[in-house]
Amino acid sequence: MEHSGIGIVRPSITRADPKAVAALSEFGVATIHEAMGRVGLMRPYLRPVHPKARLCGPAVTVLLQPGDNWMLHVAAEQIRPGDVVVAACTTESEDGFFGELLATSFRAQGCQGLVIDGGVRDVADLAEMDFPVFARAVNAKGTVKATLGSVNVPVVCANALVRPGDVVVADGDGVVVVPRERAAEVAAASAEREANEESKRARLRAGELGLDMYGMRGPLAALGLRYEDR
Amino acid sequence: MEHSGIGIVRPSITRADPKAVAALSEFGVATIHEAMGRVGLMRPYLRPVHPKARLCGPAVTVLLQPGDNWMLHVAAEQIRPGDVVVAACTTESEDGFFGELLATSFRAQGCQGLVIDGGVRDVADLAEMDFPVFARAVNAKGTVKATLGSVNVPVVCANALVRPGDVVVADGDGVVVVPRERAAEVAAASAEREANEESKRARLRAGELGLDMYGMRGPLAALGLRYEDR
Amino acid sequence: MEHSGIGIVRPSITRADPKAVAALSEFGVATIHEAMGRVGLMRPYLRPVHPKARLCGPAVTVLLQPGDNWMLHVAAEQIRPGDVVVAACTTESEDGFFGELLATSFRAQGCQGLVIDGGVRDVADLAEMDFPVFARAVNAKGTVKATLGSVNVPVVCANALVRPGDVVVADGDGVVVVPRERAAEVAAASAEREANEESKRARLRAGELGLDMYGMRGPLAALGLRYEDR
Amino acid sequence: MEHSGIGIVRPSITRADPKAVAALSEFGVATIHEAMGRVGLMRPYLRPVHPKARLCGPAVTVLLQPGDNWMLHVAAEQIRPGDVVVAACTTESEDGFFGELLATSFRAQGCQGLVIDGGVRDVADLAEMDFPVFARAVNAKGTVKATLGSVNVPVVCANALVRPGDVVVADGDGVVVVPRERAAEVAAASAEREANEESKRARLRAGELGLDMYGMRGPLAALGLRYEDR
Amino acid sequence: MEHSGIGIVRPSITRADPKAVAALSEFGVATIHEAMGRVGLMRPYLRPVHPKARLCGPAVTVLLQPGDNWMLHVAAEQIRPGDVVVAACTTESEDGFFGELLATSFRAQGCQGLVIDGGVRDVADLAEMDFPVFARAVNAKGTVKATLGSVNVPVVCANALVRPGDVVVADGDGVVVVPRERAAEVAAASAEREANEESKRARLRAGELGLDMYGMRGPLAALGLRYEDR
Amino acid sequence: MEHSGIGIVRPSITRADPKAVAALSEFGVATIHEAMGRVGLMRPYLRPVHPKARLCGPAVTVLLQPGDNWMLHVAAEQIRPGDVVVAACTTESEDGFFGELLATSFRAQGCQGLVIDGGVRDVADLAEMDFPVFARAVNAKGTVKATLGSVNVPVVCANALVRPGDVVVADGDGVVVVPRERAAEVAAASAEREANEESKRARLRAGELGLDMYGMRGPLAALGLRYEDR
């Protein structure tokens, strides 16, 4: 495993294949999470700061200290067009680590959006800029620039492991991490899953029951489900 | 009391009188809760998944197991046009029990909406379908189909007792349960309450104080409220 | 310090200078909080009940008892045009202390909006009336009128001290309290801060890094930040 | 179902058979909950106020109003020796509804202990008195006596339905409700379950694996569990 | 009001009269809170780190920054024998601000104990030292020494205002703040209250009901409480 | 990185060097976390189920499904004497995954204790057995055996990455993970840190201030801390 730690910046990271990232960007988080085998989901307390926020890109990872956003400035230099910044924190901290000025800077570097296990502010501006942010809180409280964290080390963000270059996808259903090596495979599995769902959708819309479509009646009866008249 | 338990489906339930349900559908949750004598309210952690969601109908009740949505498929068969599905869980579980495919199926059966003490996903699709859902969480995590629960037994959902056929009303203020036997009486009391509020509203809008309109000055003084100049 | 306590109403309060209030109303909560030296912020659990809510005005303070909104009626009489009502509670209570009827009354008295460390209801009506409310919960549960609290005594609301007449500013980023004596000074500091940010914004938008603009490279290196190739 | 509502006291209730209560008192909450078929458990936020608290008895039920303990005094008169008082609240309220004076009164009436979906105080005294209390919070904040609730109506306490006379059992693992009609049956099933566990315990202690004792290897393999060497 | 702010230490504070502090130390938090008229209580999330912790003394106040305990070292110099350190934070932060080394230092200066709206660590050592600590969390995460806060300015700690020199009393029921000017009066009222409770306790122990002792039957009937036979 | 996923058991894992594990077992969690450079700490919501619980050993990792403890039985076979079982879950789930029977089985295999991001039950028995458990909840609710998870894959438990064989140390201050490769180095750094603290403790006990001992007065003054007389 790549070494983690405090006080480190890694300028050279391996990003997921851009074609696989583009392919993944076609799918929703719920679909991708299923297609991956149901791993890699962040905790649902991360929520979009403005409705319709959505992002998909390789991760520049950040490890923040509580109430301190210095490493976000360090991360800005590591952003390549299309990247997503993923910021974890060494502890639970809901201060406003990020706002409109940093969003302006990140966007100028080509950043697609932010996932942060912390708070953000200037939410009206972020909505107006249409800059996608997934955060655990909104908080006007600003931060200091006093203590080192790291950039582009593996981090655990909202209970999910994220390595630099892994693909992070977020929408209204949550945030999922696709290991960079698996990006193409997961995109293919997502496509297959979605194709499969379309025919199910049509049958359900026509009134067929899942009980019949999925063949559930037998297994339910075998486990003892009983239909009672009172 | 009707027996509760695991592994039971009751196809024959007594729904509240449709006229009473229609009458109740004219009122907000806060009004109905007051008109009932302030009982029957679910905990406020249930929130609408998309703004303007609103529903009113007889309950098809479901008892789920954690991380398992099998019984929602069993429930689909028990839905009659206008019904609301109310899903409790044997424990606290915020997984995504319900999404766009089940919403398609439920709507095809005539379901008006869902109240669930659990999580849901595909929230952008649910909003686009305008399918009303009141839930405790949004979560991309899917569920399995492995363990029996029940359908149409009395359940406790978000701290309120719901029997099959009881009327469930939900809007932006919360979710309230009206026992089926009381539906007509509560609708009448709601109408009375609302009529009564209209005249109060006009007087308050004209600048009359509640202190005077409600005759509060005497009782306040009797309890010792004192007006001080510093 | 002004004495606090239960069962007291103070009709004569000293409001912040209206010019200073008007000046403050030009700035966002995050800016004002920074300009004050990062004190006076309420806890971030207070959230706007409808998007785009925003308020700025001198506080009429209320100390509520749990599940009892009597003192809001007492407060209505103390409102002067432009005031904001700030309601604390002697304990944590998320009942619906405030709804559309009280909003109608408050507005008739000239009230600009409400900040409440408790719950509110009739949220669809409040949105339609465009009456700004910042609250800790939405809850259809009504309240009684049985126990005395106070009006226009110093209160602690969501962990911030508010004295009657202090300026309260709220927007999507949170709620901040400016002591009435500091209102003009804080407005001036806010203006200065905002002017200063405009030039930074332009440089960041042009691609300059915060690392360079703020001169961070030296201090980071001094603390030992190291750039590693793997 | 027995009617619920506000402002009612029912002096005549049907308590579970004392022999069944005595039989149930031999078992832990986890065992009883399993023996009942895994229903009837209160939410785990109810915790014993002092370690080793344990109780088992028929319920005198109380419906409290927030911040108001009047109905606990009304309930005291309804206690018969061996009863457990179960206090729900019309809303979430963590004030200190109960303390050493009420415990003295309850004990004088023969009460075995208290389960309350609210707060309590005087916890050092309660421990010294060895009076078992299961509560959601400890809070020095006292309550008023101003608003009616009810005694001996069905209540929902911490998400479980409790009717007067039902058996309530609580220990360090939680609180479970046994419907009075099922008390004897559940006691018998608990005894059977416990007997069955003793032989399992011995085999596990001797080093036999659950995989073998429960015959799990086949079903696990059938579902596709694979043992990998790296 | 005394000015608050960041970056200030006030060596000269006015402590409550030592006799009044000694008198208050005889009473529990619940009694003192009642005797004060039910104001001044901290939020109940502050809990004793080890059982039987108890403290009563004049406050040395501290305003911390998140994840930064520098000001606790500054505060150590301001401690006089018998003082209690009360540490608020500019934001919610549960890091371990305090442990055994600081407890050793504080005790050497005569400190009686700590109340902190943050986390602490070394809890086994603190218990062994019998050093009373009331905190919101236990957390092994250490803190930095990088950013200024203040010492001996008024702070809001767990939603209660504390000025330097005010008396802080804490036990298993919670933490209450007595303004230094009211210390003697509140001690006297506490003594009166406790004397009054002794006779009530005896009557309740003898089986008299609160309904009769407090004369509640009339008021309950007046509000409409009805006793029903089913 | 070792691959993670569902439905996998890895019998051959590399455990940390036993000498390093033994060395680490001499130190507390707070010390080890500092010695590691302040990484690897689990979230503080994991708490010991009985006081004085403490453990240190190589991890057998488990990935559970919500409400399903099947994989704990699979894990039992993988335990070697001295191991600690670390159980993560694919979602937040507070059911009682573990109780006295499994503890009996784990102990028979040589297991030292359990760290689980979930609930446990039979807590009185666990205390009596003196079997150390660190969990997020106590819950009598049992679990099923229906869905595959994994054993000995890397897991994220309470926001910390744990690979099989890493050393997990837990005491009353929390739970920390030491990567197996770093175990000896961290033990050495812990010893050094502890030696260093002993001399500080003595000086602080003698009344020397941290301000002087750590040379803080200069840096504080440089940042502008000012001592004010009122």
Describe the protein in words.
6 copies of one chain form a homohexamer. Chain A contains 8 helices and 13 strands. The first copy, chain A, is α/β, with parallel strands linked by helices and 230 residues long. Chain A has one domain (18-187): Ribonuclease E inhibitor RraA/RraA-like (Glucose Oxidase, domain 1), CATH 3.50.30. In chain A, strands 2, 3, 4, 5, 6, 7, 8, 11 and 12 form a 9-stranded mixed β-sheet that branches. In chain A, strands 9-10 form a two-stranded antiparallel sheet. Chains in contact: A-B, A-C, A-E, A-F, B-C, B-D, B-F, C-D, C-E, D-E, D-F, E-F. At the A-B interface, helix 2, helix 6 and strand 13 of A face strand 1, helix 3 and helix 4 of B.
Give the topology, please:
6 copies of one chain form a homohexamer.
Chain A: E1 8-9, H1 18-24, H2 29-35, E2 47-48, E3 55-64, H3 70-76, E4 84-89, E5 96-98, H4 100-108, E6 113-120, H5 123-129, E7 133-138, E8 150-151, E9 155-157, E10 160-162, E11 167-171, E12 174-178, H6 183-205, H7 210-213, H8 217-223, E13 226-227
Parallel strand pairs in A: 3-4, 4-6, 5-6, 6-7
Antiparallel strand pairs in A: 2-7, 3-8, 3-11, 9-10, 11-12
Helix pairs in contact in A: 1-6, 2-6
For the record, give the distance between the C-alpha atoms at the N and C termini of chain A, rounded to a whole number: 60 Å
Task: Look at the structure and give the mean pLDDT of chain A.
Answer: 96
Strand content of chain A: 15-25%
**Please, what is the oligomeric state?**
homohexamer
Q: So, the CATH homologous superfamily of chain A?
A: Ribonuclease E inhibitor RraA/RraA-like
CATH topology name of chain A, in short, is Glucose Oxidase, domain 1
Largest sheet of chain A: 9 strands, mixed
Q: Specify the number of helices of chain A.
A: 8
Helix/strand order of chain A: EHHEEHEEHEHEEEEEEHHHE
User: What is the number of domains of chain A?
Assistant: 1
Low-confidence stretches of chain A: none
Task: Summarize the amount of helix of chain A as a percent range.
Answer: 25-40%
Q: What class, by secondary structure content of chain A?
A: alpha/beta
